[in-house]
Design a protein that fits this description.
Strand order of the largest sheet: 1-6-5-4-7-8-9-10
Shape: globular
Largest sheet: 8 strands, mixed
Structural class: alpha/beta
CATH architecture of one domain: 3-Layer(aba) Sandwich
Strand content: 25-35%
Distance between the termini: 18 Å
Radius of gyration: 16 Å
Bound molecules: S-adenosyl-L-homocysteine
Number of helices: 6
CATH class of one domain: Alpha Beta
CATH topology of one domain: Rossmann fold
Number of strands: 10
Helix content: 10-25%
Length: about 240
């Protein structure tokens, strides 16, 4: 596995970064606030009430994370293709997903499946440090560029099989798995802090139940949330390729 971080700042400095005032970095301006405002309304209508999550959505320019040909659709509450056969989820799905973690801003979080990097940046507004692993180099490279452009600094990225986790920075207060598995990969369980939560779609290759599990000693206390369809988690402790 090759460690690929965002440079000197990547992951070393805890602390949230509010990039609404990121004129110093900002090649991505807060110029689509109109459509983003409408997205916020849609999320509220769809029952998202978690203010920290709504704020994270408001601070994150989704258009920076989708291919230019579909940027005009970036603020629809719709899943969109991001290339390499992968999709970026609907914002309301991200929002619901993130609300389940009940982050307070102090956590160290591991994300498996960086994809476009959009959710990674949402997380960066909700936690102290975000570690994210992606197995497709092309996606990770694009995500790294987009993350740089929006100016998020408390994020470290790794190219590799996320089913092994990222032992170096464990334990994690929360782990988010953005792809579906049959069961919680053993290394991810081991890298979860006592009382920490893992959010993971569990089921078959095609259909899963979004599950949140809390570590209590050597066991995971599980709760089912909702039926979902995620792409398969591929790898040593996931599905075969
Ligand atoms: N949350 C992302 C979308 C993720 S799609 C976003 O906001 O854009 C799921 C991602 O998981 C895909 O990019 C896929 O390549 C990745 N993935 C699947 N199995 C993986 C594994 N074992 N390790 C790391 N990434 C994996």
């Amino acid at each position: 596995m090759v460690a690929r971080t965002l440079g000197d700042d990547g992951g070393e400095r805890p602390g949230r970064r509010d990039h609404s005032g990121s004129a110093d970095e900002g090649t991505v301006e807060h110029d689509l606030h109109g459509p983003r405002g409408r997205l916020m309304e849609t999320l509220r209508e769809r029952g998202i009430t978690d203010l920290a999550v709504l704020r994270a959505v408001d601070l994150t320019p989704r258009h920076a994370f989708v291919p230019s040909a579909i940027q005009h659709r970036a603020y629809e509450d719709a899943a969109l293709p991001i290339g390499s056969g992968q999709t970026i989820s609907q914002p309301s799905v991200h929002a619901r997903y993130l609300s389940e973690l009940r982050l307070t801003g102090h956590e160290r979080v591991l994300e498996i499946g960086t994809g476009s990097g959009y959710q990674t940046v949402l997380l960066s507004h909700l936690a102290a440090q975000v570690f994210s692993i992606e197995r497709v180099r092309e996606l990770l490279d694009r995500a790294r560029d987009a993350i740089r452009r929006v100016g998020a600094r408390n994020i470290s990225l790794l190219l590799g099989d996320g089913t092994f986790g990222w032992r170096e920075y464990a334990p994690y207060d929360a782990i988010l798995v953005s792809a579906g598995a049959q069961d919680v990969p053993r290394p991810l369980f081991e890298q979860l802090a006592e009382g920490g939560r893992i959010l993971i779609p569990l089921g078959t290759r095609d259909d899963q139940i979004l599950t949140v599990a809390t570590r209590r000693g050597d066991t995971l206390v599980r709760r089912d949330i909702t039926p979902v369809r995620f792409v398969p988690l591929l790898g040593t402790y996931g599905w075969g390729e």
